[in-house]
Amino acid sequence: MSSIYSKTVCDLAINQVDYQADGKYNKFAAELDSVNFYNGPKNGVADWCSIFVDWLIYKSVMNADCVIDPNVYSARFYLCEPDSDNCGAGCTQAVNYFKAKGLWVTDTSKFKCGDKIFFQKSNGAIYHTGVIIGWGNYDELNGAFGFEVCEGNTNGGMVAVKYYKDSDHKIAGVGSIQYDGWEMGAAEPSEPVQSEPVQSMENLYKKLAYDCIEGYYGNYPDRKHRINALGYGNIYSEVQKRVNLIVAGLLR
């Protein structure tokens, strides 16, 4: 009998941050293709945000001896995906699989770490997904309650963490994955959980400031547009403040 713990999934997700794919070619789809996880090969063919989350689940399943032991059938079970003709690489079909099992949740107060969160366009079409790795009140959301989400195939084909208020209209709902607990011997946390590497927006501002100095985001005004389009809101002015301080030798 297999088991899975949400902290294992969240920790694994954080360890993938900054991974850069080569277009639609990525290590997550490559590994799942090698075990025939879906209804056909996806590496280089499909958008991979849903594939990324499925890979996290696949890599986090434990066997009866509580040893990490990737198992195709167990992973599909936790993701509510079928063992034949699995179309879960697509966000819309992945949502339908959760709905069919009665595990589709839209009440944000019931979201939990490790849930597969889905996003919708203004017309309700599902277009993107990620995994919740933290929740609580965040200063970067002006004190609002919200979620940290680790996403694949974002920011130009990368794995990155983004923040969302619980009232964000883009949130469609979550597929509620039925974990065996937060970690072995511990229940899901009842207090806010915030991932260590991404707790502070100050760290983000400084990282982006150094990237700007290195020329990664080009020149103004294109730089401003690209920074504000990363998904963290209109943060360019805060980033530029850090650029000025770093150049002046007042910030390290």
- Give the uncertain stretches in residue-range form: none
Strand content: 15-25%
List the strand order in the largest sheet.
1-6-2-3-4-5
What's the count of strands? 6
Tell me the Rg in angstroms: 19 Å
Q: What is the helical fraction, as a range of percent? A: 25-40%
Total helix count?
8
Number of separate domains: 2
Mean of all residue-level pLDDT scores: 86
**What shape does the CA trace take?**
globular
Largest sheet: 6 strands, antiparallel
Distance between the termini: 50 Å
Quickly give the structural class: alpha+beta
Elements, N to C (H/E): HHHHHEEEEEEHHH
What does this entry look like structurally?
This protein is of the alpha+beta class and 252 residues long. The chain folds into two domains: 6-188; 200-252, no CATH class. The protein is built from eight helices and six strands. It has helices spanning 6-15, 27-34, 49-60, 72-78, 91-100, 201-213, 222-228, 236-247; strands spanning 104-105, 116-120, 126-138, 144-154, 158-165, 171-175. Strands 1-6-2-3-4-5 form a six-stranded antiparallel sheet. Strand 3 (126-138) and strand 4 (144-154) form a beta hairpin.
